[in-house]
Amino acid sequence: MVKCAICVHLIYSDIVQKCREELKAIRETNPDLKPTLAIIQVCLCCYIPADFVSTQIGLNVMQICLPRQCTEDEVIDEILRLNEDSRVHGIFLHLPQSFLSRSCHFEVFTEMFVAVVICQHVVRSSTRWIQEQQYQPWRLRPLKLQPLSPVPSDIEISRAQTPKPISQLAQEIGLLPEELEAYGNTKAKVHLSLLNRFQHQPNGKYVLVAGITPTPLGEGKSTVTTGLVQALSAHLKLNSFACLRQPSQGPTFGVKGGAAGGGYAQVIPMEEFNLHLTGDIHAITAANNLVAAAIDARILHEATQSDKALYRRLVPSVNGVRCFSPIQMARLQRLGINESDPSDLTPEEVRAFVRLDLDPEKVTWQRVVDTNDRFLRKITVGQANTEKGHARQTQFDIAVASEIMAILALTDGLADMRARLGRMVVGSNRNGQPITADDLGVTGALAVLMKDAIKPTLMQTLEGTPVFVHAGPFANIAHGNSSVLADKLALKLVGEEGFVVTEAGFGADIGMEKFFNIKCRTSGLKPDVVVLVATVRALKMHGGGPNVTAGVPLPKEYINENLQLVADGCSNLKKQIQIAHLFGVPVVVALNVFKTDTQAEIELVCRIAEASGASAAVQCHHWSRGGRGSVELAQAVKKVASQKNNFQFLYNLQDSIVEKIRTIAQKVYGADDIELSPEAQAKIDYYNQQGFGALPICMAKTHLSLSHMPEKKGVPTGFILPIRDIRASIGAGFIYPLVGTMSTMPGLPTRPCFYDIDLDPVTEEIKGLF
Amino acid sequence: MVKCAICVHLIYSDIVQKCREELKAIRETNPDLKPTLAIIQVCLCCYIPADFVSTQIGLNVMQICLPRQCTEDEVIDEILRLNEDSRVHGIFLHLPQSFLSRSCHFEVFTEMFVAVVICQHVVRSSTRWIQEQQYQPWRLRPLKLQPLSPVPSDIEISRAQTPKPISQLAQEIGLLPEELEAYGNTKAKVHLSLLNRFQHQPNGKYVLVAGITPTPLGEGKSTVTTGLVQALSAHLKLNSFACLRQPSQGPTFGVKGGAAGGGYAQVIPMEEFNLHLTGDIHAITAANNLVAAAIDARILHEATQSDKALYRRLVPSVNGVRCFSPIQMARLQRLGINESDPSDLTPEEVRAFVRLDLDPEKVTWQRVVDTNDRFLRKITVGQANTEKGHARQTQFDIAVASEIMAILALTDGLADMRARLGRMVVGSNRNGQPITADDLGVTGALAVLMKDAIKPTLMQTLEGTPVFVHAGPFANIAHGNSSVLADKLALKLVGEEGFVVTEAGFGADIGMEKFFNIKCRTSGLKPDVVVLVATVRALKMHGGGPNVTAGVPLPKEYINENLQLVADGCSNLKKQIQIAHLFGVPVVVALNVFKTDTQAEIELVCRIAEASGASAAVQCHHWSRGGRGSVELAQAVKKVASQKNNFQFLYNLQDSIVEKIRTIAQKVYGADDIELSPEAQAKIDYYNQQGFGALPICMAKTHLSLSHMPEKKGVPTGFILPIRDIRASIGAGFIYPLVGTMSTMPGLPTRPCFYDIDLDPVTEEIKGLF
Lengths: 770, 770
Prior knowledge:
homodimer; 770 residues; alpha/beta; 12-stranded mixed sheet; 5-stranded parallel sheet; 32 strands; 38% helix; globular; disordered N terminus
């Protein structure tokens, strides 16, 4: 608990009077509040009597009158001793008069401050303490940015800016010190208790950044997001928060590089953002792989032990007493066994209890690793002598593909996360019944491993504006959006007039559709505006331009002006605007300008966008100019967000699985119909039978086309969407139909990024990250 | 940079005079020091002129004279603005007189303090600032401990004690705020820059805790270590530091439980200690697996591409320019190719450069995971279509078995760590030449991944005394000791009269031998005393008692008094004392007392121990009583550590590999001789040929017997130690002969620990960890 100190500089007795009045006012206006209080009084002749405080104000305040001849150390010791005593709510220190005439009182005074700092007393008035529990206007101090030309590398730009201490940023935006857990000086986890403190605080505006169908190079949604908040907060002086996904570490060393934005629209320090951050993905890896180890070990133990032996080991006699653990009691309940004494179970009940009877062929849970390790795409495990005879084929996915990541992104708190972790289906038994993490008895351990990961991480942009980095689920087999919790915290923090800008992965047909139908449905939050990111490059591709391939120089069509390609390609932009309108949300088109774009191309795009129903269409220069380059976008977003909208979901959960899939395929992708493989149809029957039919749909489709065919650009029509198979993430809470094959484990190229990455052992500076 | 504030309370002008004198004295006695300085002056009529400070003291101090009518906000804003200006070394604030007669000056005064706190100004005099750069006597405030009987569970004891804020502990032991990186409120990483600041500070006493040959249950070295520092610091008021290994997270959920000590001798919060901590093991996992992914990807790329294609991809043309990266230049140098223009290489040179030609059969590098996953003990990777034809058999080890962990434990800084990472041998090419991480081009990326892990983590014991937790290499295939860096930092921090207590894994024949011959040789540190931990239980086992097995109740011999078994078993204790004496280090025997031990048994052990050459032998009750129960041990350690000793290594590095192994086998284990398998002999020839012959030896032997036969208790004699195979960790810097089979991947039992582990979603408290 933070102890609140009033520091009274008593030269005039009117101060005493003022203090009395303030303390009394606190008590009267806030009868429920018991602010802890430390009164440090340097006094000549008068002071506030401690009993006055205790009786009038109702606080437990201790008065210390130190002996006349006490030393400075004794003063400090006394303060520290009292600070550690949890019964003492405050310290009321009356220094003997002699201190003030002794030449040493200068040191006493400074020592006292040191003591106060040591104790983490925040020196402020009680009035302030109470105010701070309420919503505070921001006192954001943006960092100055002086963009260079040509634009240096991302790591150079990031390194050239000194971030504010994260505790300072936290204070500027109204976080209390006890709501912050620093991880070094540039990142901190924020406690979920904030949601309680601000439960009556209205939310700010909720802005989604989505994109048109991208080229394989990406069209800059993250930089637009970052540039937009830099413009809103640092230039328009409006509270704003960016909520970003945490990137997988694997691709950082592979082919993709970092994901902290780029140019002058970045989250800093970019190396922290791109590496371990605060360990959330590592926690997911540990939790995911504990489930995997538990599955295989359990299969082995069941295969090699009798019911009796299993039961004896699962419910051992400890000091002569056998009893079920709470986790086991929960399993008994699920099995409909109402005994609580282990000796009362019938042999059949024992058998039901000890045998999950998992079918090794039907284990759906995979191990994960946060490395681009293609050789783990298909493996055989259990080939050692100790497991002989139980080898089986399985695979590793990249860590962010874990269902636990999707849960982290969708949960609204610890209790909900624990419940979702327990519901995760890891496979089925030989009778076809789903087996869950709860059945494995591992739920509690998973919650323990994830207890810190659930808190969003606070960082800052290049211009010192706040950013939450939290969760980064796959955008195909999962929903590709950052966490509900980060958005919720940010919406409270920015205040009613503020803006939260969050990003959805892939094109709008995928990321935005899932943002609305899955994330907003789960969170109950209503979006105010969609920012749709387009580039002249991608539009030219949709207009019939040649292939765009990573690592290969761009064909000349993309470097020289070509208005026809742009005009033709705007069909994709128009379609994505229409998709947003299906949900009743207005669209601002953000044209992310490259230096090869001509004025005529830019104007053409903006004109067509507005003609296609966009509420506004503006060009953005955040990459080369930071927030200043996105001011026009920020103004457009501000204006459009203030309009009323009619947000609605695209389908009802109660629709059948087939109907839900068909709705997305037809209305969003523009397919004529869907076609289910026999596997898919069988899975639908199975999920319906298991009671999973009312979950939302999370399509696993390529992001390179509105259709399932990556090579079909623009707005493909006249196609039937094939549903190859259907899977489910029951804990996360969605069903994901597979359209084509999804790789869940990237590889390393011949020349991986790590060839350029190094650390200067003296300066500790990182080189080669981009 | 921390700005240093002098807070001047100017009531009397003699203070001004005093201040002037102090500032002048600083300048005169420390001509090189430029302490940054903030002077906040609340003044009636006189102040220290800023130009006086600037010219006389040589600091860049800015004086601000605010307008008479300025508001509080303006004052604060000005302070904050200046604080962010890196050119300003200090703030010299002269408030107008009017402030002191206005009724609002109370708020101004408190606001100013808030500003000071916000800015992370440490409010103290310049004298203090300079003093703090030097070694500071500790001002440790131990936490009070009131042990209960019967002793509650470890997690209950841990949770019942509120740890000090880690920043407070850091300040108490003389760390500067800028040397600390908090990870939450109870753990923090400490910067290695401390070693520079204290380079002229003499080391404290260096105490090693080792044990007799243990039962499979362990004999309590960690609790003795923790209890000893609690006794030294909290009861004898001597500076002391415990240096512990970070435990693997896998066994926490398997069979072993936590490793933070136990009972009333624990590191708190124990759940932080046992779970992710500050992410070091996660960083090792990421680094280790990046090497593994790079190996397999490289083999695949080389197998499927021509020299020319490989060269084109490895050295691509970027904007028409081809050049080698620094990492590639280093490889060219190793190959003896002195060209720097990629077009100048001959086809043969290109071939040598692009082909590591790794033999898939001779890859020695394994993947790791920090989970007890027995099904990964032997696996086949690369079975997906995308890698078809390149499947190979390999394995996962538990993360702490990674060579990178051994490197972390032995390195002395970033540059050394980077060099060691680069030297790691991952396999050999088809010509039998070793291939290193440097050859893979991954060294820089590994250093980047490990840049935070290299900083030791500060935590505290139950009694609020400091602990470093850092590194935890395997005690058989590696050397089983915590990090050199943590010990070095701690030895400086405790001061010349202080104590650093570090622990070696397994029995003294393994952990202590490696501590001396490997760790001390690498670090150059000299141990002062060995604390040898014994239990009546283990001694009875060595005396011929029945088998002790985990999870099975102890036979009656271990519960009832049996002096004969104890007396016979002391042979093992005597032998381990003699081993320590081989190295010239005196021994204090610590008998870790269990409640079933009788007074006669305890006295017998102590008598025999002293007769066997121990400098002292005392009983310890830390588990039930905390530091108070180890005061006698602390006194004995203090006394023995003050005696001079003649530390020496057991062998010279220049001895042949066989000779070094034989020396350890005969002198430490008591073997008659060693016997090399043909594989072992071939490896020795190979290592000699590669120039690895002068590395120290790290024996991989069972810890359950002095011999290689776990069932042989006491002091086995008349045996030949078989060396089955020999391996090498070139980066870590040792050769490890295998005596028998070492499991590097534990499994989960039928009823793993996680059955009892859970999280309360409301209180966030963890249940079931032990």
